[in-house]
Every structure is written in structure tokens, then in C-alpha cells.
Design goal:
Arc Repressor Mutant, subunit A, 2 domains
Length: 200
């Protein structure tokens, strides 16, 4: 691992603990075992460090989600694995949401984070559309409109992640997602039966 990546990992831990407003480069340097001046070799300021840390974390999320969809050839099994991973990743990145919800980050970084979050959703929709189209080609499911299903899947993950972050009650993510998968399977089956009836 490169030194810059090590610093970004340490920075991520410090930002999680203290929040954006309270973090100083001195805090990050201490976490890394470096002098504060050494950080300026890698970063202009705290804002640039935060942006690079954010991009690194979101790149990791993209890789994890792509991996979940590609590892399983069965459509519903891969969607289930994706949803579980996606929901847990939302919970793991809650420190970003907390930083931006309490207005502690400057407006330019809030805009940056919003743009990156929107790009992540676009990337997810693209991945899921590809997975649905592959399932149709392999006759695992009959032809359906992929985009609405993608938005449902992402919306459920966001909702479960929100509940995990804001509820004192324990939530069994896998159990909840199993129920959603049953609904998706049932709906796909129903749509397919309707199409077959129209053909007859």
C-alpha cells in the first residue's frame, strides 16, 4: 500500500471519530505517526484530503458492489447478495451522512459529496440494468423494464440502511432482504404469466 493510501485510511478513521469540522491535519498526522508538515507533501489542505478519502472509499464501494453482482450466476441470488452488501456499506459509510447532515462540512464539500453520491447511484443502476439484461438473455427471467426494478432495489437498500442508522432496534437485514426478494420473484413471475396469457 502506498503511503498516500495509508494516510487516507488513517484520515478516514479520524474523520469518523471527530467529524469534519473538528478534524485538523495535526490529528491525521498523529494518527499516521507523521509530522503535520509531512502531510503537505501529499495534500494541499484538509478539504483536498477529505475529497480524496471520499473518492477512495466510494471506489471501494463500487468494487464491492460489482463483485457481488458478478460472483453469482443465479439472478435472484446475486441480487440478494448485492442488496445485503449494499445495505451494510450504507451503514459503514454513515460517518459521511452524519458529517453532511449536521452542516459541519463547507458548502463546496457538500456539493462534491452530493455529486459523488449521485454518480454512485448512476453506476449502480448501470450495473443492475446489465445484470437484469443478462438474466433475460439467459432466460432466467422474462423481459421486464430494468430501470424501475433497479430503483426499487436501490431504494430498499437505502431504506434499510437508514433504519439501521436511526433505529435503536436491531434489524435482521438478511431476513428483510429475503422478504423483498420473494416479492421481486413473485412480481417477475406474475408479469411473465400475464405476458403468456396475452400471447394465447
Amino acid at each position: 500500500m502506498e503511503r498516500k493510501d495509508e494516510i487516507l485510511e488513517a484520515a478516514s478513521m479520524v474523520f469518523k471519530k471527530l467529524g469534519f469540522e473538528k478534524v485538523t491535519l495535526a490529528d491525521v498526522a498523529k494518527e499516521c505517526g507523521l509530522k503535520k508538515t509531512a502531510l503537505y507533501y501529499y495534500f494541499k489542505n484538509k478539504e483536498e484530503m477529505f475529497q480524496l478519502m471520499f473518492l477512495k472509499d466510494f471506489s471501494f464501494i463500487r468494487e464491492q458492489l460489482k463483485q457481488e453482482l458478478s460472483e453469482n450466476s443465479n439472478f435472484l441470488s446475486s441480487i440478494k447478495a448485492y442488496m445485503i452488501k449494499r445495505t451494510k456499506l450504507v451503514a459503514d459509510t454513515r460517518h459521511y451522512m452524519e458529517m453532511f447532515l449536521d452542516d459541519s462540512a463547507p458548502p463546496n464539500l457538500r456539493r462534491f459529496a452530493k455529486i459523488q453520491a449521485d454518480k454512485l447511484i448512476e453506476y449502480e443502476v448501470k450495473l443492475l440494468v446489465e445484470k437484469i439484461e443478462q438474466a433475460v438473455e439467459k432466460n432466467q427471467i422474462r423481459a421486464i423494464k430494468p430501470r424501475p426494478l433497479c430503483l426499487i432495489i436501490i431504494g430498499v437498500c437505502e431504506g434499510l440502511g437508514y433504519i439501521m442508522l436511526n433505529s435503536n432496534d436491531e434489524i435482521d437485514v438478511e431476513k428483510e432482504i429475503n422478504e423483498v426478494i420473494k416479492i421481486i420473484a413473485h412480481d417477475i413471475d406474475r408479469v411473465n404469466k400475464e405476458k403468456q396469457c396475452k400471447k394465447q
